[in-house]
Amino acid sequence: MTSMFDQYNKTLKREEHPPDISSYNEPKNTGYVSVRIRSEEQPIFSKQKMKLNLPHDILFMTVCNNWLVTLMSHQVILRLFLLQPDRQDEVYLEKYLAGLKVSNLFLDPLGNHLLISLTPKSTGFSPELLYLNRKTNKPKKIEKFKDHEVTAVAFNYENKLDSTTGSILIGTSRGLIFETEFGVDGDKVQNNWKQVFDVGKGEHCPITGIEFHKVPKTTRYIILVTTLDRLYKFQEELRVEEKSPYLQNIFNSYLSVPEHIRDFHEIPNKLKYSKLRFNYDSATKYPKYFGWLTDPGIFSGEIDPIAESHQFIISNEIIPFPTNAEANTATTSESYVAKRSFYPISFVLTDFHVLLLYTDHITAVSLLNYQTIYEEYFTEQYGRLLDLVKDTANDTIYAYTSKSIFRYKVHNEQRNVWRMYLDKNEFELAQKYSQDNPAHLDIVLVKQAELFFQQRDYMKSAVIYSKTQSSFEGVCLKFLEINEKEALMTFLRNRLEHLPAQDKTQITMLVVWMVELYLTEMAHNVDNQKVVLQLQKEFDTFMNLPRVEECSRSNRSVIYDLLASHGDNFNLTSLTTVNKDYESVVNQHINQANFSKALATLSDQNKPELYYKYCPILMEEIPKETTSAIIALGKRLDPVKLLPTLVSIDGDEHVGEVIRYLEFCIHSMGCTELAIHNFLVKLYGRDRPDKLMNYLKIQGEDITMVHYDVHYALRVCREHDVKEACVFLQCLLEQWHPAVELALSFNTSLAQSTASRPIERDIRRKLWLRIAEHEIKGKDDVKQALELLKDCDLLRIEDLLPFFSDFEKIDHFKEAICDALKEYNLKIQEQRKDMEESAKSAERVRNDFQMFRNRSVVIGSDEQCAICSVYLLLKPFFVFPCGHKFHGDCLETELTHHLSPEEARKLALLKQQLAGTQAQLDTASLNGTKMSSRDQLKAEIETILGSDCLFCGEIMVNSIDQPFINDWEKVNSDWQ
Q1: 3-state secondary structure 698-746
Q2: Residue 558: pLDDT band by 50, 70, 90 thresholds?
Q3: What angle, rounded to 10 degrees, do the helices at 504-524 and 546-554 form?
Q4: Beta strand residue intervals within 311-395, DSSP E
Q5: How far apart are CA 42 and CA 151, in angstroms?
Q6: ∠ CA(759), CA(760), CA(763), 5° rounding?
Q7: d(CA 910, CA 920)
Q8: Edge-to-edge strand order for the sheet containing 264-266?
Q9: Dihedral through CA 248, CA 254, CA 259, CA 265, nearest 10?
Q10: Per residue in 499-549, pLDDT tens?
């Protein structure tokens, strides 16, 4: 028997790596939904025959957790682990079947525990129950269940042990429900059992299905029990987890409930059988919904995953069986079709379909629209189909006949679910199952939007239309034709949010259109302020969207023109402010004559250069505020660049503010620009002459230090007849005579002070003579003339006499003449004293010269040269009045370094000439003659050498800043 699985093992390995037949032709990404077409799409249900060489026919089969258990016709149970085909064994039941036959097999979800139900073949025998653990191949009889035919078993899905089943429920052919637990202890089977409920009340009422589950994350339990015509529901919350048996507590509250008010569904059933099947959540293994095979069809119900209420079945419906007209009759034998039964003998549930098993074919019906989507007939060579079973561990479905086993795989069964939900107008579910296919999702959304449009729910329709790829123009026309502006705006706004960022053109178009619509709506509702405020709020929200902000900044001129065309100055100003487009903001304020707001905008921004552009207008309209603003900016503004603005304005108030700003620039900022100072001089001279002299005095009287053009200032002052300033400026230009002449024309005191300013005595005297002439001529006021003599010490009475008339009496000048004579007498006496002192000084000098001629110095024999420290008398020497004594050659050597280049050349030339006369000197000595030229040369050399003492004379003083050592490298080498 071990060799019959060899072929199955090979088949399993091929199935672990199936060929890829689901490749897609990927289209290029164009930004729109594209339909991807499978090159070779697999069917939803695919069948594969398991290649097992079975020596005998199959009677029963079950599969759980990849453990396949079959009962063969020769009463042998085969156990096979599908993932490891070599793990298989055989269990012989022949010795347990005396007068009995197997009626069913029940395998727990983990494949560890197998219950074998036995029924008698003939009278005289009683039903029995066998228990077979996966760890052993010896079944054990359960004596406590003798006389009870087991027809349904509810295993414990929370049990993870292989040594015990945990608490389970067992249903019998008489409608009795037992709670029990099977476990293996060596060779013995331990079990506790207790009858917990009776649905038959002593009558033959076989239980055809039973199952219980604990609701996830709760202590609530639910139980479903089916008979031929009833579906019973039990539930209870077990507050404390008790030891087995504890499931009986679920039934306690139902024991006293009368039969007619018990919680059950009753469906008349002509069939002699029924089946209960579940479809489980793949993660929690908690049932999502169930199916109950009855006469009318499959009674299906959805189970509440939370089960907070007593009605844990939240919806139910009957799925009708396909009729003969609906069935696919593609077969070669008409008689074979006629023989088939209308009712299925078994079924299993998938997520979206129910597979119905007939004796000769399998049909798959959609749970959503009850349409047959798959049907396949089996040839007679395979034998009659016996049952469908499902492995809940991996959702694999198995169908078997007496000779063969078929495995069904489910491939993407939700592929058409979206369409079914769409046909039922269940749009949320349709969207859920079409999320992985943009084309399907778009179809769902379009139909949903159209439905809302037909129902006149235009806002919802617009929102959904914006998510689709429907024609943009078509959708817009839909809303325009019925004049639904609000829905249209909703569609455009949402469509804008879903556009890709790179689609700049369409984004710009939508933004501009939305702005146009908002402005139009606000204009149409101008009389209804409440509506306008709501629209304005929506418009502000729209403009603050990041994508809209970016678009408005990129196309600001278009948006601004649109706002301006509607005359919406409020939004235009707000938008320019949000975009920090200060130039546009200022323009808007100026166009609206809001000059103060325009100035405030300029003050808030960080672009001082805009002042140069807008100051001409602002200075004209609000000069005081504008001046204060530009003063506040200080050095951030260049006054020279503002000059065109300042020059162009006129008016007394404007001039005052311009002067205030120029004074700030000069006095606070320290501006030295010639143009600024000249302009201020002009304004002072023209409008504020009283301030001009103060400005000129602050600038100072040094023409090289002033910051204005003196000649320009003089022209301005002459033009505007500012005489005092003219005098001041002429003095700066040292135009003394014109200055005095001008001053004499209006202020004699100013003329006198001006005449005293020149440095040159002659100029001052001439200026004062001009003042005297101006004051005396024509007046002959002797008293005033005498006052001039007191004010200026440069004038004498004789200087003033020519200015008086010839008829003036001398008596008027008697006192002044006497004073002058006295002064002259005093000066004569002082001159005489000075002459006498000079004569005495000359006599003293002559005496001193005479004394020096007779002066002598005594030289001792031990006197030494101050330079070489050798006895002085050994060589010619020099003696200086200070007492220093030097040899002639020593003095010459040291003195040469301190002589100027000219003196050094002269000394070298004299020495050369002296050496040239030496031969002539010898000849002249023999002849007894004298060489006066030689003595003259020698005298000149001595004059150079003896001009000053080397140590204490001018030579030493001039060399005080000279270093003692010049060649440090030589000194360092000598010291080393």
Answers
A1: HHCCCCCCCCCCHHHHHHHHHHCCCHHHHHHHHHHCCCHHHHHHHHHCC
A2: confident
A3: 100
A4: 313-320, 346-349, 353-357, 361-366, 372-377, 385-391
A5: 38
A6: 115
A7: 16
A8: 209-214, 220-226, 230-237, 264-266
A9: -90
A10: 888 888 888 888 888 888 888 888 888 888 888 888 888 888 888 888 888
Residue 432 burial (CB < 10 Å; 0-12/13-18/19+)?
A: middle
Q: Are 290 and 268 in contact (CB under 8 A)?
A: no
Whether the per-residue pLDDT at 240 is higher than 70: the answer is no
Q: In angstroms, what CA-CA distances link 709 with 2, 429, 512, 701?
A: 124, 91, 59, 13
The rounded distance, in Å, linking the Cα atoms of 72 and 55 is 9
pLDDT at 817: 62
Average pLDDT score, the chain: 81
At 972, is the secondary structure helix, strand, or coil? helix
Between 244 and 220, whose confidence is greater? 220
Write b or e for each residue in 571-585: b if 16 or more Cβ atoms lie within 10 A of its Cβ, otherwise e.
Answer: bbbbbbbebebbebb
> CA 429, CA 419: separation in Å to the nearest integer?
10
Cα distance between the two ends of the chain: 116
Judge contact between 728 and 712, C-beta under 8 A: no
CA nearest 288: which of 306, 275, 308, 274?
Answer: 306
- Alpha-carbon distance of 567 to 849, in angstroms, equals 114
Q: How far apart are CA 156 and CA 944, in angstroms?
A: 139
Residues 68 and 107: their CA atoms lie apart, in Å, by: 9
CB 25 within 8 A of CB 37: yes
In sequence order, what are the beta bridge partners of 50?
405
Angstrom CA distances, 234 to 209, 243, 254, 554, stand at 14, 20, 8, 68
Nearest-angstrom CA–CA distance, 129 and 312 = 33
Q: Three-state SS for 9? A: helix
Six-digit token pair at 604?
């808030």
Four-residue CA torsion sign, 852, 853, 857, 858: negative
Q: Which residues of 414-429 are buried (b: 16+ CB within 10 A; e: fewer)?
A: bbbbbbbbbeeeebeb
Check pLDDT > 50 for residue 673.
Answer: yes
Residues contacting residue 612 through CB under 8 Å, at least 6 positions apart: 641, 642, 645
By the 8 A CB rule, do 871 and 861 touch?
Answer: yes
- Which residue carries 């077979």 as its tokens? 132
Q: What whole-number distance in Å separates Cα of residue 297 and Cα of residue 269?
A: 10
Handedness of CA 819, 825, 829, 834 (dihedral sign): positive
* pLDDT one-digit tens code per residue, 843-882: 887 777 677 666 677 888 888 998 898 888 888 888 887 8
What is the pTM for the complete model shown? Answer: 0.56
Longest dimension (CA), the chain: 197
Average pLDDT over residues 197-215: 89
Taking residue 819's Cβ as centre, other Cβ atoms within 10 Å add up to 13
Spatial separation of the C-alpha atoms in residues 371 and 289, rounded to whole Å = 19
The DSSP bridge partners found for residue 67 are 64, 81
Rounded to 5 degrees, φ, ψ at 244 are -60, 145
Single-letter code of the amino acid located at 403: K
* Sequence-separated (6 or more) residues with CB below 8 Å from residue 13: none
Paired tokens of 254: 């139902």
